[in-house]
Amino acid sequence: MLNTKRYVVLFATFFFVILGINQLLAGVVDLSDREGEPTLIIHDTTVAPGELLLQIDALNFVEDNGQVAAITLRIEIDTFLIQFNGIQNKTLVGSWLANYNVIEDEITITYTAPFGMGFDIDGKLLDLRLEYFGGFPADLHFKANCEVSNVNLQTISGIVYEDGRINQTTPVGNITQDTVIGLFDQSFSMPLTAEGAGYDMVNKTVLRVAYDSLQLQYAGFDESALSDATVVDNNGVLIINWEDNNSPMDFTSLDTLLYLNFLFIGDTNTSTLLLPGSKVYNNDTVVASGFFDGYIKAKLHVQLYNAPDTAGTVFGSGYYFPDDTVTAIAVPNAGFHFLNWSESGSIVSSDSVYVFVKQFSNDTLTANYAPNLYNLTLIASPIEGGEVIGAGIYAYGETVSVTAVPAEGYTFMFWENGVDTLSFDFVYTFIMPNSDLTLTAVFEIDVYTITAVSNNPDYGSAEGGGDFNYGDIATVTAKSEAGFMFVVWTEEGQAVSYDSVYSFAVHSSRDLVANFQYETDCSAPVALYVDSLAETSALLHWLPSGNESEWDVIWGEAGFDTIDGGELVEGLMETKYLLENLDPGTLYDFYVRAICTDELHSVWAGPHTFSTWYVGIETQEYRHEVIVYPNPVAHDLHITFNENTPAEKRFQIINLVGLTEKEGVLPASNQAVIYLDDLSPGVYILRLFLENKLLTKIFVKN
After folding, report:
1. How far is it, in rounded angstroms, from Cα 660 to Cα 609?
2. List of domains in the chain
3. pLDDT of residue 441
4. pLDDT in the model for residue 107
5. Interatomic CA distance for residues 657 and 610, integer angstroms
6. I want to staple 204 with a disulfide (CB 3.0 to 4.6 A). Which of 44, 243, 353, 448 is the partner?
7. Cβ neighbours of residue 123 under 8 Å, at least 6 residues apart?
8. Do you find a cis peptide bond into 632, omega within 30 degrees of 0?
9. Signed CA dihedral, 281, 282, 287, 289: sign only
10. Model confidence at 504, in pLDDT bands (50, 70, 90)?
11. Spatial separation of the C-alpha atoms in residues 8 and 315, rounded to whole Å
12. Contact 206, 241 (CB under 8 A)
């Protein structure tokens, strides 16, 4: 409870003081528009940077809203623009406290009246003593939890709080940033310039420049008029300090202080902002300055690509301002056609000339192409020469394989396109060109050699041999001499025709022997040969020259004496006889005669010479892997082996009586030549030993 007597005494003591103050304020403040509402007002003012007193009024705290005994004020300020130095000229008697919280940007003022007392007030409350740094308007805001209480400790309600503002007088100089172009992912410089009549002795600058880190990346600075300046990047605010008390700068004329460097990483227009706290000191005094922001006009990238990258050419890449008209042009290369433009996987246009308005973004557009389709025509030449596989429709750049399959009797030669030979491989792989294509597979009919020889030139002759195309009809003729008669045509010991004039279709090379015999009532056998050769055995064969049905055979090592040597086998009823228990790798002769009656025998036919295999040689022959030519031969006998023929090769040439005329080792290559100038004319047997295989050929030396 209040002490009433004490309250009355104190009130009487201070009444006239308060009344005098209220009368004084009534002469300064216009009270006509307050309409009785209790109001706290921070005055507006326009001043140059420096110290000032800023008045706070308390109006209409009278009658029911009077008897003020306690006040709490919380005022928000921008500490970059205002420094609070205290309060003065307080109009209410009592206890006053003022606190400055820089962290909270807040001034806190409290008042407590003497115990038991309260006062009416309708005018000035106090002055705030402030340091104003200038450059920007400085606002002072009443914060929440401001409160005024009366002597009864009751909060006065309905108080109106009116904020105040400090405006700067007309600037005597300006700090200005420029308008520049920002190219995406490119660096640029933002100049800071100074100019003004009040900048004749500038000895210190403090500038605070903010930038958007989503659009710009700070990349340092370059000095200009200011040397030894420092720039610190504090979370997107560049703090620029410079001071030189010994050599003040004169910026009455426009000059560039320094350049701030940035990398433009954004996709829209942006600014660099000069912030409160920016100050210019002229002769150690902060002067009224204007601060103007920089503006970066985004010039955004349009990047154009081709897919596939070799399929065309694009035009229109570059930098554009937002709202510019962009024309993107796609020109397909030969072999391709344009499909569409796409961005981030979505089709944006199907026109090769795509016109659009540049937005606030960087654009990456892809011109998509597809290869053209072309016809591939294949021709066989001659038509009957074979089959061609692989014709059809192919895309440009596609890998194509075509195959030539020769018909029987033909050999593939090469692929050609018009007059150009393209490949000698029957499977030809190539890349489809950007045009229709016709390829011709050239085939050549196979040519075979037919050899026709007599078993004895003294008995008769054989005609009709030579080179023939596959399918030709060859005719060989056997003509006997006087006293002799033709018996049979044989091939490798086998009878093929008993007609002296033998015609046949040519499907391979053939070695034919015309067999002649004496004209007699008991003819000697013909076509002696051996097969089923092994290391120790051989099967002998012959053919009858007439109606003979019984034969004798005499055999022995090559060159044996037919009178005193050899082994005689009599009374054979078949045209073959198996010899066994022979020596490996040994040369043997055998003769055969016909037994017509006990008193009538033919002459001995032979000898026919053969050799058993060496130990380890397989009992097999292969005849079509080797070509021997020419036949008949005059000087040089040529031998061509196929690619599978072993490298180790040797030869032996024997005459019809079994004697070895020549022998030696052949080269490891697939071509060999045997020189025969020292060989007498006649019929000879060529033996080729190819590792574990044996090949026998008959040839005539002219």
Report:
1. 10
2. 4-168 (2.60.40.680), 173-292 (2.60.40.680), 299-371 (no CATH), 373-445 (2.60.40), 464-611 (2.60.40.10), 626-701 (2.60.40.1930)
3. 96
4. 96
5. 10
6. 243
7. 21, 22, 24, 25, 26, 28, 29, 57, 58, 59, 91
8. yes
9. negative
10. very high
11. 95
12. yes
Could you tell me the strand order of the sheet in which 576-579 lies? 526-531, 538-543, 576-579
Structure tokens at 598: 């006990």
Q: Which residues contact 408 (CB under 8 A, 6 or more apart)?
A: 470
Separation of alpha carbons 551 and 539, rounded Å: 15
Per-residue pLDDT, 635:
86
Q: In whole angstroms, give the CA distance from residue 500 to residue 517.
A: 13
Assign 3-class secondary structure to 594-611: EECCCCCECCCEEEEEEE
Taking only the tens place, the pLDDT of each residue in 20-73 is 333 333 333 444 444 689 999 999 999 999 999 999 999 999 999 999 999 999
**C-alpha to C-alpha distance for 177 and 292, rounded to whole angstroms:** 6
**193 contacts: CB under 8 Å, gap ≥ 6:** 175, 176, 177, 178, 254, 255, 256, 257
| Short-list 252, 201, 256, 192, CA closest to 224 | 256
Residue 568 has a CB neighbour count (10 Å cut-off) of 11
DSSP assignments along 356-382, one per residue = EE--SS-EEEEEEEEEPEEEEEEEEES
Q: Are 147 and 40 in contact (CB under 8 A)?
A: no
pLDDT, tens digit, 9 for 90 and up, residues 215-250: 999 999 999 999 999 999 999 999 999 999 999 999
**pTM of the full structure:** 0.52
Tens digits of residue pLDDT in 565-603: 889 999 999 999 999 999 998 889 999 988 988 767 887
Instruction: Name the residue among 624, 604, 505, 620 with its Cα closest to residue 563.
Output: 604
DSSP assignments along 163-219, one per residue: -EEEEE---SEEEEE-EEEEETT-EEEEEEEEE-TT-SSEEEEEEEEEE-TTTEEEE
Compute the half-sphere exposure of residue 422: CA atoms within 13 Å on the CB side of its CA: 18
Joined together, the tokens standing for residue 442 give 């050239």
Any bridge partners for residue 132, and if so which?
50, 82
Residues paired with residue 50 on neighbouring β-strands, in sequence order: 132
pLDDT number for residue 617: 47
Tell me the one-letter amino acid at 362.
N
Residue 658, pLDDT above cutoff 80: no
Phi, psi (rounded to 5 degrees) for 120:
-80, 150
Compute the distance between CA of residue 608 and CA of residue 696 in angstroms, rounded to an integer: 13
**What is the distance in angstroms between the CA of the first residue and the CA of the last residue of the chain?**
161
400 - beta bridge partners?
Answer: 430
Q: Residue 620's Cα: distance from chain center in Å?
A: 57
- SS3 state at 407: coil
pLDDT in tens, 349-359: 999 999 999 98
Taking the mean position of all CA atoms in its chain, how far away is CA 5? 101
Tokens of 222: 């370059």
Gyration radius of the chain's alpha carbons = 62
Does the pLDDT of residue 139 top 90, yes or no?
yes
